[in-house]
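input
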Amino acid sequence: MVCMKSRTLSFGLAGLLVVLMMAATGLEKKYGTDFAVRHIYASPYFVLCWGAMAVCSISYLVRRKVWKRASVFLLHVAFLVILSGALLTHLTGYQGSVRLRLDVGSPVTAFTARDGTAVDFPFLLSLEDFRLEYYPGTSAPMDYVSTLAIREGGKSYRGEVAMNRVYSHQHYRFYQSGYDSDGRGATLSVSYDPWGIAVTYTGYGLLLLSFCLFFFGKGSEFRRLLRHPALKSGTACLFFLLALAGNTQAKELPRALPRATAEKFGHLYVYYNDRICPLQTLAKDFTLKLCGRTTYKGLTAEQVLTGWFFYYDSWKEEPCIRVKSKEVCRLLGIDGGYARLTDFIDVQGYIPDRAMQSATELKDRQAWEEANEKFSLVSMVAAGSVWRLFPYVVAGDSLSVIGAAGAATENKRMTWYSLADRLPPDMSEDVWLFVRNCMNYVAEQVAREDFRAVEESLDKIRKYQVREAGDFLPSQTRFKAELWYNALNGSRPFALSSLAIGIWAFLYYCRRMIRRKTDKTPVTAVLLAGVAVILFYLTVTIVLSGIVSGHAPMSNGYETMRLLAALTALLTFFFYRKMPVAIAFGYLLCGLSLLVSMLGEANPKITLLMPVLSSPLLSLHVMVIMLAYSLLAFMMLNGITAVVLHLFHSGRTGDVERLQVISRIILYPAVFLLAVGIFIGAVWANVSWGRYWGWDPKEVWALITMLIYASALHPASLPAFRRPMFFHIFAIAAFFSVLITYFGVNFFLGGIHAYAG
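output
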């Protein structure tokens, strides 16, 4: 009886904590982080719930004699140690910030805690030096480095603080947080946690050891499942339906440069999105944002971009500006969802200005703001203000404040000028004349349709760029990689074909399962070949993206969804032998992942990495988490298959049971990877921000997801999970926590992980 009470209290308190954390993320969205921390995360009752759950769990484990199973015992001990570390951090640690200046003579003796109080240092702290490091040829910061001087007891200490590089002294850890605009001051985060970090990291180590014992130890539950007799038979499939509509446009083409000449433009360097890249990238982003596609009526992106510049009169009457809002279409007086530039102006003036002022609904204002953005973008292209083609390097102070298009490094300053910019007075006369007039000459040659002369002029511009900014330009390998990436990067065909094939494959394997056919067919080989093609394509584009960006391509929602698609394709080859329907799952998940990645395609996809994200731990964290999500998605689709079989073929209990065994096998590594990914992320956060857990909505929902799925690992304590249909319904419902963790947080709840959206 006591054992049952301990069990009930343990799982009941875990459920209560999950509910409290769900509520806290909603309250944080509405009332702010401080409110959620004060009333829930740091409240006595929340800490008491965790403590009570730990005590009840210990009691239950002792009465169940769990110590006889080393892996299970060590696993639960690891979580208890991690909780103990978190409690020690809560009780003995504190965080804050300190602002240091080079021009302040007296050292700092205290820092400001989160509650606004001043906390004294046991030493004197001052800033000895500060420097900014930029990505070559750009104004995007790559790193901030502060050199600290500490005096204590007649001794002096010196250390450097940079992004992802911590300086520690007497259990005080300093992290780079920000800097002053004049480059002579820095803001550092301060963390004091003498006991919690060591205990928590010990728990992480025990957790990894327990996972190793669980997966590789003799007699473990996981290895027993692998030998389950139900796996000797075939299984079933999934149901999913999705349809996408295309769009139609007029057949007549506006005036444009020849494809070869426009391609020559695409091979010029341009300063765009805080980095130096091929003009082709700007053209593709412009065309995608304007038209909804990277091509228009068979014209390339370079032809569209140059068309708006050289043939403005032709293009302003072309209905190529995509308008999504029906209300905007109605007020502009257009049909079909595509507007001309001239549609935005009537006898009373600029329509979006009036509409935004009179709009009462938020969605209407946002729709008009989007339309206004496209109009402004076209105007900037036509005026030449986005064509930052002309670099100019001058001597300067490496710490001087530089404008949006400039960069500073090694006592040199480089600025990229557009056609509409005012040129510096110290520019030599010949350079001034070339920069100011060369595009006018090109325009004259275009008007005469002397495209050979146009290409010669473009060669001269390219030579000027190399001569003036040679040291700042990306390598030829990176430049060519971006051209290849632009040529290959088109998710729509793969997304649509994957979904279509996945639906067909589902129906095919369902029919075979109903007829109890388990023999191999050529269809399976063909489908696997298709998965291999998708995997190869994704691998190539991911590698190219990594070469171009200079970092592992896992820093935002677009990149991680493509990674998820690649991992899904890879997992398909591991599952299809025991579960042929996994091939259908692979196609569907790949298609859905690529489809979701397309939601952000209108925004630049390759950007310079935020300094805080420049860590190998980030790549490992994202990789592991995405792999866990892929496994959980397979488990969810498995559950849908079982439900479909149960509803339409009630006699197929054996297949439903086999699907449960497979899902349980998937569940163990999925929860393992999810836990490891969370804790790798915690270590990364500790290195980057000075705390391994900050109750950010993303962190909270990742923990919620892990706790939800971990409950299914206890069929002996929770008998409901022994029933196949209950398990499958749970797998379907639990996946909503994954969707909230990845999408809901990014798009609705916000937090410091919002960059991932």
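quick obs: The two ends are 49 Å apart (CA to CA).
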